[in-house]
Amino acid sequence: MNGNLEHYITRNIKSVYKRRLFAPVLYLFLLAALWFSLPIDSILFPFQAKTSDSLETLYNENNQYIQTTLTDLKFTGYTESSFGRTNGYYYYTMRDNVCTVVLLTPKTSEEGLPAIDTLCVNAAVKKNDPALHTLLSNIAEDLSWTTDGITKKVSSYYISEPAFRRNISAAVIFIFALTGLHALITIILSIIYILIPVLSPPCRALSRFGRPSELLSQAEEELATLPQLATEDMFITEHFFLAIAKEGIFIIPIQEIIWIYKHSTLHKFFWYHFSISYTLHITANRHLYVQLPKNLKSDIDGIIDYLSEANHNILVGFNEKNRLKIQQIQGKPFRFETLITLLKKRI
């Protein structure tokens, strides 16, 4: 048993943060895949397209968001609408001797100017879709042409200003950057905690009661030498209560514990009650609060009995009398309203 508990706390701290590396690393790989597969950044920095650049080539090379100068635009007389709202006005122009359809926003086209001499626009290159096909069919009918005939004269790719949604793309990039930075920081901190466990949050919490490195070393030695009581994930040594649980790793000096009690939770499926689980609540000095759910009643009762014997100052059980005593010892929790009051007085 002693061999199994040698450096048990440190090994579990490393194990916890090794597991926590998986999710952020996977997320960063996912972000990288999306970044390179989708033209997210190009909408913020659109490709400077010349008149001689083929729309088909731009589309196939993933330069779908462009900034280009258009000349001699003529209004077709048709608009694009959805839910009774006009989204854009269809124009046509010649680009490198190819007739090209251009969809402009109502603001840019000033609600359908008959002609526009020159226009520099940020837009998206779109492939032939049902809306363009309908437009060409209507124009062919107006000119007494066939749809196939006019399709051969007009590029199967068109330029759409309304499809250039810079604000949406900027929001997506911001989310990518924020979540990616969070994942990167998580990875860096996890690696630090794996290499230097004493810097991890469970050990830093010991700074409330003394030097974390010394207290961790003492707890490791006591646990490896002779634990006083042990359950599946909770241990008591001569001077420490230890919990190695899914909720976290907790190292609490027994003399700093001031209140302990258990809380039962009834689990049911519809009307059928199938189990009861118990949560161990521990309050220690300097506002340290620990909750350890889903434990056996016998394990928690054994922990409570042993701790109350080891430290007779510990209050046992949840009741109003004990709550008021703890509030008197700890003081009222620091709340947002208190901060506002202090700031007002300061001002």
What is the straight-line distance between the termini?
61 Å
Percentage of β-strand residues: 25-35%
Q: Over all CA atoms, what is the radius of gyration?
A: 34 Å
Instruction: Label the structural class.
Output: alpha+beta
Give the strand line-up of the largest sheet. Answer: 2-3-4-6-5
Helix/strand order, N-terminal first: HEHEEEHEHHEHHHEEEEEEEHEHH
Overall pLDDT metric: 86
Question: Secondary-structure map with pairings?
Answer:
Elements: H1 8-37, E1 47-48, H2 55-60, E2 65-82, E3 85-95, E4 98-104, H3 106-109, E5 115-127, H4 130-142, H5 147-153, E6 157-160, H6 166-195, H7 201-204, H8 212-225, E7 229-230, E8 234-236, E9 240-245, E10 248-253, E11 257-269, E12 272-284, E13 288-295, H9 297-310, E14 315-316, H10 320-330, H11 336-346
Parallel strand pairs: 1-2, 4-6, 11-14
Antiparallel strand pairs: 2-3, 2-5, 3-4, 5-6, 7-8, 8-9, 9-10, 11-12, 12-13
Commentary on this structure:
This protein has 347 residues and is of the alpha+beta class. It contains 11 helices and 14 strands. The strands form 3 sheets. A 5-stranded mixed β-barrel has the order 2-3-4-6-5. A hairpin with a 3-residue loop joins strand 8 and strand 9. It is elongated and about 100 Å long. Residues 342-347 have low confidence and may be disordered.
